[in-house]
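Subject: Molecular chaperone DnaJ

B.,
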Amino acid sequence: MARSGYKDYWKILQVSRGADQATIKQAFRRLARQHHPDVKPNDKAAEARFKEINEAYEVLSDPEKRRRYEQFGRFWSGDHRQASGGAGVDMDFQNYGNFDEFISDLLGRLGEGNIPGGFSASGFPRPGRSRSRPLDLDAETALEISFAEAFHGCERTLAVRTFGKNQESVQVRIPAGILPATRLRLKGKGNLQPGTGRRGDLYLRIRLKPHPVWRLEGDQLKADLGVGLDEAVLGGEIEVPTPNGTATVTVPAGIQPGHSLRLRGQGWPSSGGRKDLLLTVVIAVPQSPSPEELALLRQWAACRTRSPREAMAQQALLPKPL
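Prediction pasted inline below.
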């Protein structure tokens, strides 16, 4: 750089004098990525170089500024801002959700001749314009967990994006008995608003993986309970599985398929204690009965006194109206 304080913006962007806007923009993108502080952390020289690149692009991308720069050199702006090492561009990189967002926002601001703060190059406020485009700061994503994790509660370590491809690890505590569609709030882990430092919240919407036995309807834990033909006819006490082990339930004699058995305090966890577990009776018909079982079933069929379709036959007829 010359002692006079003149900065050769063409040289800074590595383009020839007379380069068109597309070439200038392409050079800016390439150099901005190369010297971005995320690429060279804790490198003051890289940060200063990055500011120079932004300053050069601010001038050369604006036709009026470029014309004055070519005509007046270091005195193009009338206030010698370029000689002081800063063109008024906001360099708070951590306020952006990713690098492309930063570049796009910066290209938009500099291309319009804006100075950060919503002011035009003339120094007067630009009506209805803001340097930050509208952005929904809160974000939401689904978090799929297993039945066991939801039932007992757990801790999950999640990778949350901070800037560009950078991520941070966040511990999330999932309480026991959490229900599907519940939203967990991670404060200050949402989207970044360019140029302001504001960051929204991240909401995790709980989704349960299907389970081969258990199903959850609201806060009611349910399952189908296989009952043998003899157990359904004779009744008695049987041992059944629960999420925490086993329990004993009484099956009434003559129970019908679809009937529900309730096990109190064996269901889904809640703030007031465990809910009840509902088991729906399903008759377990043997797929490959033994010769002894077949013989007994034939004897049973021979001494049956009522048809299992008797009730249906009495009510099924739909007489034609007169």
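Confidence is low (pLDDT under 50) at residues 79-98, 108-133.

T.
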